[in-house]
Amino acid sequence: MNALKLKKGSTSHSAYNLRPTFSDTIEQHTLAVVVDNEAGVLARVIGLFSGRGYNIESLTVAEVDHTGKRSRITIVTRGTPQVIEQIKAQLGRIVPVHQVNDLTVEGPTVERELALIKVAGDGDKRVEALRLADIFRAKVVDSTLTSFTFELTGTPDKIDAFAELMRPLGLAELARTGVAALSRGES
Amino acid sequence: MARQMSGAKMVVQALRDQGVDTVFGYPGGAVLPIYDEIFQQNDIRHILVRHEQAAVHAAEGYARSTGKPGVALVTSGPGATNAVTGLTDALMDSIPLIVLSGQVPTFMIGTDGFQEADTVGITRPCTKHNWLVQDTEDLPRLLHAAFHVATSGRPGPVLVDIPKDVQFATGTYTAKPKASEFRYQPPVKGDMEEITELVAALETAKKPVFYTGGGVINSGPAASQLLRELVEATGAPITSTLMGLGAYPASGDKWLGMLGMHGLYEANMAMHDCDLMICVGARFDDRITGRTDAFSPHSVKAHIDIDPSSINKIIHVDFPIVGDVAHVLEDLLRVWKARGRKMDREALAKWWQKIEGWKTKNCLAYKNSETVIKPQYALERLEALTKGMDRYITTEVGQHQMWAAQFLHFDDPNRWMTSGGLGTMGYGFPASVGVQQAHPGALVVNVAGEASWLMNMQEMGTAMQYGLPVKQFILNNERLGMVRQWQQLLHGERYSSSWSESLPDFVKLAEAFGAKGIQCSDPADLDDAIMEMINYDGPVIFDCLVEKHENCFPMIPSGKAHNEMLLGDASTEGAIQAGGAVLV
Known about the structure:
The structure holds two protein chains of two kinds. Chain A is an alpha+beta fold. Helices cover 27% and strands 39% of the residues of chain A. Chain A has helices at 41-51, 81-92, 103-106, 124-135, 156-166, and strands at 27-36, 58-65, 70-79, 97-102, 109-120, 139-144, 147-154, 171-183. In chain A, the strands form two sheets. A four-stranded antiparallel beta sheet of chain A has the order 2-3-1-4. A four-stranded antiparallel beta sheet of chain A has the order 6-7-5-8. The two termini of chain A are 20 Å apart. By secondary structure, chain B is α/β, with parallel strands linked by helices. In chain B, the strands form four sheets. Chain B has a six-stranded parallel beta sheet, with helices on both faces. In chain B, strands 11-10-9-12-13-14 form a six-stranded parallel beta sheet, sandwiched between helices. In chain B, helix 12 (265-273) runs antiparallel to helix 15 (345-359) and helix 16 (375-386) crosses helix 23. The chains are: A alpha+beta, B alpha/beta. At the A-B interface, helix 1 and helix 2 of A face strand 6 and strand 14 of B.
């Protein structure tokens, strides 16, 4: 019955243990989608979002099982509960999709994103950037006399906060990977 | 048993192993090796259509009328792009198809080669799944997988794009695997807890209604049989979508007729007023629900569907049951019987009284004429004169389609082939070709409008070449009738581009193809003319000149609820307001 292996939500009547879909509130959910790493599978997932008018806040994908040729796609999306349930069901019926997990519903998760941040400047600003980087535990991965490139790992909020702080200090370029996420605990 | 053979030979071998007897197709440069193999065997019959769109619709007609998957074969580039409408049509109506397309050789992909198109890219959103075959060694596995995916779970079209060098190269052929060997295994059994709760709701329901759809037909003959048993045993009324006609017999006494935008008054009122709605293999399409916030406001709703994404998509339901219709109905019946076959018979009798009251509205009534053929009358006569025959009906899209659904009656599934979800004008004629090919001895009638019919009229050539005696019953009002009706209701009677000018002489057109043409304009001659059409051993174009300005009623205007139906011309003024006008 529970093809998507989602944990039981708050309603007893449900196809995928759906939560009530009446609400109009916009929620943000992190979905983990395990797929066969075959040609075009990412296009299928992205095409589903664009074709049906869903939002993608962030998306990461890489092969996680080289022998089984499986990839894990982590999607952060926003929508009403009804839209989120539709997204999960629509993802679930894509043929090369093995499993869809709604990490947001399933319990506490670890979410991390990696960013590379280039800050150009000199004098006090340069010192201040380095000091703040230390507070955020960002690593310097490249430097010139007039610039630093920091590597920062953390939640998207943390990266947002750091980038905001770097803006007046000479933020030149920012590259982010998008969110990778796992549920906490042993399973 | 593994054998070495060319990719092209593998295609024919795989089709043979899958039990395919007919392929609808059109050759071209990128599929020549496959056509060469088809030429050298006699197991699989190739039907040469006159346009690739028609190949796919013919395969749809074949599939819908047999329950087996349909197969089409097209070349690269324009062959594949022409197939797109058919693929989308099959996706919307959940029809199992395997479409094989040729592709430029792998080393030319991406070079904008002659007749190259990104076929898997173009068809990704309009297929259930598709593959570009990169290596001949992968070909047999993917061909067999295509059949498995097309027919498992919610059926749909699957495309396999085969580059020409893959067709020429030699590889190892592997035989058809068992269905259980594929990873893709949509669940077919419904949740017993949910089914039991639904049975409990059914036992106490005072005003239940079954609302069934194409999923019952897709599930196979067993599903229709179980549905009939369930309806008869419970005594609850049943209505159906356009796609589901025939699953429950129109002659059955629990039958309310089709529901929806042009459905019957009693069916829509029952939907609006019921206290338990059991949706079986239908998907709360906008043609069915009308205004969703006013849709059946006081009912508890159950939804049986094999596709979880159909559930709670449009309408929130209380008993969602994911599973195959036949499996779920079997369990439902068993549980209901085991619990003592309980129903609130007293309440049910009152419910039927109410329904009988609605029936007295006689919502399909129309003003007949002695001088001009009314389209409804033409269909009434067609129904009367073909009743009891081994008959299959296809339709094009528009007013004639709705009248056909209202006035023709189906007592069995797989007898009614119409483009429901996509609403594809030009569907009916090639579909009738596919149906006739599958049922050579049957009477196959395509109920058409003249405008729709012209969209794939080239298939007269196919019908003639293969001696397929399809009857093209054209209700010719020289208008795009449904467009005209909406312009009348919505756009101040400004009939922008909605008339058919420069129409051919259909009788001469038939004769030009070597077929028979019949024209009829007098109601007094209609019966004889229809009989002449039926009795003619060959394709017929029947040009039935009908009333030009007839509107199709009843009608739920866009943006309105089920209980706000229009029953006739008198009530149409101001029927659709600005909010409804933006809807289609």
